[in-house]
Write a structure and sequence with these properties.
The protein is of the alpha+beta class and about 150 residues long. It has four helices and four strands; from the N terminus they run H-H-E-H-E-E-E-H. The protein has a four-stranded antiparallel beta sheet with strand order 1-2-3-4. Strand 2 (about 110-115) and strand 3 (about 115-125) form a beta hairpin. The longest helix has 28 residues, at about 5-30. The protein starts with a helix and ends with a helix.
Length: about 150
Amino acid sequence: MSDSDNESDVMDEWAEALEESGDASSDDSSSGDSSLDAVAADAGVTAAGFDNLEDNSKASGDDINMDVILDIPVKLSMEIGRTSVNIRSLLQLNQGSVIELDRMAGEPLDVLVNGTLIAHDEVVVVNEKFGIRLTDVVSPAERVKKLR
């Protein structure tokens, strides 16, 4: 059997399958309970409606519905300070080792949300647990500028 015979056999099989699927879909749509619409209705599936879509690219900041994002979790962290060490020094650290940071004692800490600075704070103790008191909050306009 040659390659052209194999190709024609495959093409014939595809043509038959397409005819059957075309006939089956037209038969199904004309019959009552076996149609796709009836199956979808039984399953509680409804067609998606896109009639009321509007162009939101021109929406102003006042039109944004903040309720959509209010329940999204974010990672909140406090940063005492930073430093760089080489791997040799990192491997030599033991219990009781002291690491010098780039921040002076008494300076406010940074509050970061998903890595973005949103405020400065100071450490407080509440019911024998550490807490923070916000001392300076970065304005929303400045936060948006940093995102761009």
